[in-house]
Design brief:
The structure holds two protein chains of two kinds. Chain A is an alpha+beta fold. Chain A is built from two helices and five strands, in the order E-E-H-H-E-E-E. In chain B, helix 6 runs parallel beside helix 7 and helix 6 packs parallel to helix 12. The radius of gyration of chain B is 26 Å and the shape is elongated. The chains are: A alpha+beta, B alpha/beta.
Chain lengths: 86, 404
């Protein structure tokens, strides 16, 4: 499925804004992203397996907080990071 | 005397309300009718809407990339009272995107320059300048005097401060932020939707995300996002259309794609949730992990002054490492520096000798401080960070090195 990556995390994806990854849940998807782009998961998820407070994950424009949330192959995932520039 | 009064009275009776303000909305002049003609013929705005704009007030926090186009268009649109908070001066590097200013503004305070430009653009609006850093001590008094607040700041502490003050005062916070080619915009109004904390409960740890000064920003991007804020402000003031309340708009300039996600109020939000724990403004530097005294002291302990470094290099001491990117090195570099971009430092640690004193530098000192922390974690002890980066080196040691 398509995953949209925020600018600050694009150093992991070779500057790609949109990448492909797989998983039946959000947690699996993040694990797959980490296989493809080592180190990326830790920037989004902390040691307690919760989404870091400056990172948000949306599936089809709805926010998900639970890594167990199910995903389908046609879903679109948007990862967000807080930006401060003005 | 009596005749004069009679004459005045009869004029008031016959003149339309738009010319007298007898209906409670501000009067407008014939000049203003001409100026706002394109608004007046829009049924959604009309004369009544235009006079509502004249009766409205907006506070623009930050007169930089976002605040510049925003202030210009708010003034042009005829928003009656525009407040601007800023404490900076105009420099060359602002002109790539901060369209309020020109060459004649260089060195002046942004507020002085903005006041002159906006007065020239539209003398029918009142511009109030507040030469101050927005703080927990002054924010409530300042924001209270405006109908809508626009967040055009460039740092996390002020963004949380603006949010919290707006929540406590029950004001809409029209939000925009930018980085490189990406922008985000929303309207936070806790009377009708979520706040900034519902979206991002905490900022990223300090130093994790480079600022626009270190990471760069496409000059046109703040124009796009600042004017999305502008559109939302006019809609709020005129009670028109569908605003971004409860929605976050994402803009990717490279893909030229707008996306949108839904934002919900977080019942556990510490300031607008069901059981709020924040009832007054807090210390936002501390909240953002920037505890100024200790962090600054910590950073200072590792800093080396440009002149000190010049003397050390002269004596053949110290190994200078430039952690910027190759395209920056091409613009300007310090003779003898070795380029190891921050992102590749971990894999190239083997090239460094921990018995040597290593001096790190970047553009302004931010990235090299992160590099220093990384090297410390890897066991390096003899480390220094060039204060102010190559920019300070050019100003204080070698003016032949171009600034950018």
């Amino acid at each position: 499925m398509k995953v949209f990556v925020p600018t600050p995390l694009r150093s992991y994806t070779g500057q790609q804004a949109c990448v492909e990854a797989q998983g039946a849940t959000v947690g699996e998807l993040l694990a797959d992203l980490n296989r493809r782009y080592p180190g990326m998961r830790f920037r989004m998820i902390d040691e307690q397996d919760t989404v870091r407070p400056h990172i948000r994950i949306f599936v089809n424009a709805e926010q998900v907080r639970d890594l167990g949330a199910p995903l389908g192959p046609a879903d679109e995932v948007q990862i967000l990071q807080a930006l401060s520039g003005g | 005397m009596g005749e004069d009064l009679d004459e005045k009275r009869s004029k008031t009776l016959t003149a339309p309300a738009w010319a007298t303000g007898a209906d409670g909305l501000p009067a407008v002049s014939r000049e203003e009718l001409l100026r706002y003609g394109r608004h007046l013929i829009l049924p959604e705005v009309g004369l009544r809407g235009q006079r509502r704009l004249k009766a409205s007030s907006v506070l623009v926090v930050g007169a930089g990339g976002l605040g510049s186009p925003l202030a210009l268009y708010l003034a042009a649109a005829g928003v009656g009272r525009i407040g601007i908070v800023d404490f900076d001066r105009v420099d060359e590097s602002n002109l790539q995107r901060q369209v309020l200013y020109g060459v004649s503004s260089l060195g002046r305070t942004k507020l002085e320059a903005a006041e002159a430009r906006l007065a020239d653009l539209n003398p029918h609006v009142q511009v109030e300048v507040h030469a101050a850093r927005l703080t927990s001590a002054n924010a409530l008094d300042l924001l209270r005097r405006y109908d809508v607040v626009a967040d055009g700041t460039d740092n996390f502490p002020t963004r949380y401060l603006v949010n919290d003050a707006c929540v406590l005062l029950g004001k809409p916070n029209v939000y925009g932020s930018i980085f490189r080619f990406e922008g985000q915009a929303s309207v936070f109004d806790t009377r009708r939707g979520p706040c900034y904390r519902c979206l991002y409960p905490q900022p990223p740890p300090p130093g994790l995300v480079p600022s626009c000064a270190e990471g760069g920003v496409l000059g046109v991007l703040p124009g796009v996002i600042g004017l999305i804020q502008g559109v939302e402000i006019l809609k709020l003031l005129l009670d028109l259309g569908e605003t971004l309340i409860g929605r976050l708009l994402l803009f990717d300039a490279l893909a030229m794609r707008f996306r949108e996600v839904r934002l919900d109020k977080d019942p556990a939000c510490p300031i607008c949730g069901e059981q709020p724990t924040i009832h007054e403004l807090i210390d936002y530097e501390a909240f953002c992990g920037l505890t100024p005294a200790s962090a600054a002291a910590d950073a200072e302990a590792f800093e080396i002054e440009p002149r000190e470094l010049a003397a050390a290099l002269e004596r053949g001491e110290g190994r200078l490492i430039d952690v910027r990117e190759p395209h920056e090195y091409e613009i300007a570099h310090i003779e003898g520096a070795r380029l190891i971009p921050l992102g590749r430092l971990t894999e190239r640690l083997g090239e460094l000798d921990s018995s040597e004193e290593i001096v790190l530098h970047c553009h302004t000192g931010e990235r090299s401080m992160r590099a220093l922390k990384l090297l410390r974690q890897s066991g390096f002890r003899k480390l220094k960070n060039l204060r102010g980066g190559i920019d300070a080196w050019s100003r204080e040691v070698d003016p032949e090195v171009p600034r950018y």
